[in-house]
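Sample entry (275 residues):
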Amino acid sequence: MPMIATHPKVTTEIREVYLRDGVVRIPGAVSEEWLSLIAAMADVELSDPGEWVTDTNPGAPTNRLFTSRYRWKTDSLVNRYVYESGVAHMAAALMESATARLYFDHLLVKEPHTEAPTPWHQDIPYWPFLGKQICSAWVSVSELTVAESSLEFVRGSHDWGSYFAPEAFDGSKNWTSDFEGEPAPDVASARDDYDIVGFEVEPGDAIFFSAWILHGAPGNSGDKRRTALSTRWLGDDVTWYPHPGSDPTVTDDDTAVQSGEHPSDDEHFPLVYSV
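Predicted structure, serialized as tokens:
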């Protein structure tokens, strides 16, 4: 039997929940020392954004959705978090993988009273990979309810065998024009038709979820900022699969990995954990 990762926080029960539901919350996954550092880093990034940024209402104290990605090479804190927080090890254990490579880091901020929800979607069609061992580790720096924009999921949808067409989050249908596939279902309009699970989190809790699961988040109706740092992880069975609609940040022009090969490229997808 091939070796797979184990981790003290990833009990047999927790792993079984992740494999069955496509998502699981691990309490206290990240130590408190990281949380204030991430919050301070978010302050800096909001005032002086980096390269790969989405900002819906720049400078506003409310009704602002801000994201920043791919900072592990340029921000020493993000780099240390990737390698030292332990989330890579937990991701490998949950995915029953012997390894975990980083795809990218993703800072996500919703200021208080931000109306815009995160639409229901799968991650996998937006990413240039295939494989079941692909997951995210989403960590909040503060206590959050679903109403304050914690995450919701359609339980078990990672096993539907669906691969929904990627669309722009503003609903403009302009993400790509040459992707063949059905659109993601309108979960928000028919919530009773789906087995939806939402997570209230304490500071340092991690929500690990499959790239294949349908998920979304409401706007932030609360009075405090929602700051989360998500890292995206690639396991043993992952292959490089650039395609129409996938994130153009890293493309065939950037890597020597060929389509169908494991992304063994430490410059772009560094090996962070191995048994």
